[in-house]
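Below is how a single chain appears once it has passed through the pipeline. First comes the sequence as given, then the structure the pipeline wrote out for it. We keep one example in the README because the format questions we get most often are answered faster by looking than by reading.
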Amino acid sequence: MAKNGNDAEIDEGLYSRQLYVLGHDAMKRMQNSNVLISGMRGLGVEIAKNVILGGVKSVTVHDQGVAEWRDLSSQFYLREEDLGKNRAEVSQILVPFKGIKLIIADTRGLFGQLFCDFGEEMIVYDTNGEQPLSAMISMITKDNPGVVTCLDEARHGFESGDYVTFTEIQGMTELNGCQPVEIKVLGNICDTTGFTDYVRGGIVSQVKIPKKIKVLMTDFAKFDRPAHLHVGFQAIHAFQKKHSHLPTPWSQADGDEFVALAKELNSSLTGSAKVEELDEALLKKLAYVSAGDLAPINAFIGGLAAQEVMKACTGKFMPITQWLYFDSLECLSEEGDFMLTEEECAPRNCRYDGQIAVFGKNMQETLAKQRYFLVGAGAIGCELMKNFAMIGLAAGEGEVIVTDMDTIEKSNLNRQFLFRPSDVTKMKSDTAAMAVKQMNPSMKITPHQNRVGPDTERVYDDDFFESLDGVTNALDNVDARMYMDRRCVYYRKPLLESGTLGTKGNVQVVIPFLTESYSSSQDPPEKSIPICTLKNFPNAIEHTLQWARDEFEGLFKQPPENSIDPKFMERTLKLPGAQPVEVLEAVYKSLVTDCPHSWADCVAWARNHWQCQYNNNIRQLLHNFPPDQVHTVLTADSGAPFWSGPKRCPHPLEFSTSNELHMDYVVAAANLFAQTYGVQGSTDRAGVIKILQDVKVPVFTPRSGVKIHVSDQELQNSHASVGKMEKMLKLRFDDDTNFHMDFIVASSNLRAENYDIPPTDRHKSKLIAGKIIPAIATTTAAVVGLVCLELFKIIQGHKKLESYKNGFMNLALPFFGFSEPIAAPKHKWTLWDRFEVTGLQPSGEEMTLRQFLDHFKNEHKLEITMLSQGVSMLYSFFMPAAKLKERLDLPMTEIVTKVSKKKLGKHVKALVFELCCNDLSDEDVEVPYVRYTIR
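Resulting structure:
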């Protein structure tokens, strides 16, 4: 029996990423839930792992069977010395059966089944888990029904059936704070004919309404097979009951008997459950592999099942209603009539028996020889390593190289299950490698602590990549993904790419010469917040949080070296034409005017900065655009009142030591300022208040002639520039003792108060300001299961595009979508094509530029008009004659070294050249790059 925490508190440090998926209410309900899991083979332990990581109150595991060899194919907590022992201690259920929700999961080789029975009715508190929407209103009509129009800044995103409420409406105040009303798109709400006239403003906000659902229908994952598999799984139970064993792997006789049993069962069914004509070929394959036990299938079905457990416990997200079937028969040979033999798939009394039953011993030997590069040892990386260990990847002559430069933090423990509390501060790659070696001692895994990129190409060089069979990404940023994608395209290595975002997950497979690459298509860039909105006209908490983050990064920077003479800086600033003035002023300010000498100086600085940001600057803004002229000061483009639409009229704040938020800011800002200058800080609020009593705050008088830009275009036209200095403090969100989040939360909520924007708590502030990616173990497990199924196909050398599957899922809805990868776009060449040129001639001498140009003219009928290497131009048709004459008879590497002014490293075996060419008709043609081999 596993137990987590107590009922009273949620450990936000541990569950922070999951809290962003589930929310506090759902997490509390789950924290009070007791779960029984019956069956502790590979699928059962996968479900138990995910549920325990999720943070339920208790998990009771039940199993009357003993450990067998085939269990070790996927049961990652069993060891060879456990053979013959009971798979789990039989424990008494902690909750009565009345009202209990039932989830049944089953895997048979390449097939999986999931059934959920949550009773006739269930209350779902949040069907999709998305953040509630809000939008600013531009008009509400008096009508039946009334119509709400939102500002045109962006699509509002509301859908018919959503419930909303209203705030800040001027005029039609009957809607402010009303009970949630159901809407229809476009814009219809309740009857507003009896309301007062709408004047301006207002915000419409989505409200999540608990929904009572009936769960009596059925739902399948693949549209052409589920009914057949529904009969097939019943036939498995019938066969096992009759013979006391499953069909023998790849036995033709057992397959025939199994199909006969399925037909007999089908004939006894009635209504929609009966299949008109059973797919015998599909059922035979189910029989052939049903004795198999595959870790990736268990990971996928186990992730789904664990998420359904969480839904049952919390009422968060829509449950599966009721059946789900899954298969990955594409993992078998691409030859339709392919048959393995019983001998090839017979048990060997080894840990891979469950996998050999499906793919045979030859496939197992191939897996053991694989050499794979795993980039990242976080949540996805840990799951991948566990699956690699179970399937026997690199468990012979092969090797898995895993690299990750990060150390383990407490928040990782909730979903990176290879790590334990005692591992915090250790290197992820080292710790994960040691953990999976315990699961499978035969696996050869080598941990690195390198960031992948141009700086480590001496480590991950030509020899390294050419020795690989493939690459698997487990990264959390797009730049690193695109870099690895380019390397895989260049070295023509298959790449398995995946990612998660809360309950959403995706898998992409990249196959040389067959599919497009990861970089072939990109998501649209994240929409940025206009600078003027941040500086002067925020209207949402996201704006104030970004402003607070900018404040942090702008304020707490490393001061220049103390060896710089302040008097020299002062004289320099006064010199005519001194450039750049902003940088010099910043240096002088850091060294002279702002440099603290005591804790009291730090508190005084924080108090005065508070006054500047939340009082003085707001007063200056209102001096330029007075609120009492709201009906007469108009914008140039629309003629609307200035303080209307997205522009919220602010008000200055008055500092008070009795205001907790004001003191939060001063304490956090003073401590950060003290850290910057090496001054001892303090959290003694009484002492801070005492210091504040003696702080002199200069009287502020708004100035005339101060230009405040009302649009980004104005700001751009003003050529405004900001001096940059090296940052000392790196913004860290997971440390609650460093004052970083204290400052961000206080700064943001004070500015929100300036503009009458509802504040937000620390938890949500951390999510938004930290751009934190929500994560939950269930999605990670399911995604990695799909990745490893694609790995099986790659290792077998599948050549057909339709054999591979890109996948997308959203466990909250739930939704599962699979599609063939997009083929590599092909004109004359694809992204996988290139010119291969060997630099060394038969004579032993290297090719000259003249010979290089002649080679393309003779071999490819192309005239090179421009030739470059990186940013260095090596040749062009418009090059001065003297320079051209100088280069034509030089070896290519000598030209590269001379132009780039960099020596070629000994690790470099080839150079990449880019070409512009004309064909024989003197027309421009697009051509691929050149790989020029020098060693």
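The mean pLDDT is 89.

See the next section for the split statistics.
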